[in-house]
Amino acid sequence: MPNKTKVIAFANNKGGSGKTTAAANVGYSLSLKGKKVLLVDADMQMNLTLSFFDEEKVMEFASGSCNIYRAVTDRLPFEDCIVKTAYKGLDIIPSSTLMSSMEFKLFKEKEREFCLAKGLAPVIESERYDYILIDSPPTLGCLVLNILTASDYVIMPVEASPWGLFGVANMFEFLESAKEFNDSLSLLGILITKVNTRKNYYKQTLENLKATPGVRVFDTVIRIDSEVEWAQDNSMPVAAYKKSARSGAEYMELSKEVMRLCR
Prior knowledge:
This protein is of the alpha/beta class. It has one domain (6-261): Rossmann fold. It is 41% helix and 14% strand. The protein has twelve helices and seven strands. The protein has helices at residues 19-32, 47-50, 55-63, 68-73, 102-107, 115-125, 142-149, 168-178, 200-210, 226-233, 238-241, 246-261; strands at 6-10, 37-41, 83-84, 90-93, 131-135, 153-159, 186-193. A seven-stranded mixed sheet has the order 3-4-2-5-1-6-7, sandwiched between helices. The chain is globular, with a radius of gyration of 17 Å.
């Protein structure tokens, strides 16, 4: 019988695609729908953690034992590294600056591709959460392979810009290679982000992606919205920062698509 808890990776090997913003705001939107959500910040930039805590608190997490790096490398129970955010039903495992050495640490492990999956297994089996959302670094290495091996689905944010599609083919190839370790992994969809509907970049990006066989493109697109940056500056999801924010409504629509597709 499928697990109640659905694990979704936000992944793209190109930086600036909007992965972290999507993970934070989809997580918050799902919590507003009454879902219990665990965020996992697996990027050394720690921006997902910064989306919910100020810099001082984030650095406290990063230098302590309550983060994803310590959970994996010291084989700590992942449950012990979970931190509550200010929002009901929304928790997080913070990141660490030490994530920069994670690839080397994983390389020395036996069954290195499954370290994250093994750590997350008790959390998944407890059915404490409806969704676990993992923010990935913009790389294609052992850490991202770990994330994909631990996940049921992948959401791939793609920026609607001239360089937005750069590297997407490599990401598709990497997803196929990850299925050697996790044959149930599937691409939930491609999310088009940073959209300016008045520019041709958006139309070109949409047409190119929809022409790709076997690839779902989310109906919801995320348009450029200055409120996102203000929300991030205040360590808040955009809809919590400003209820009327356009992007907040878009992330809510996206979360509805995610719930519908994750069966």
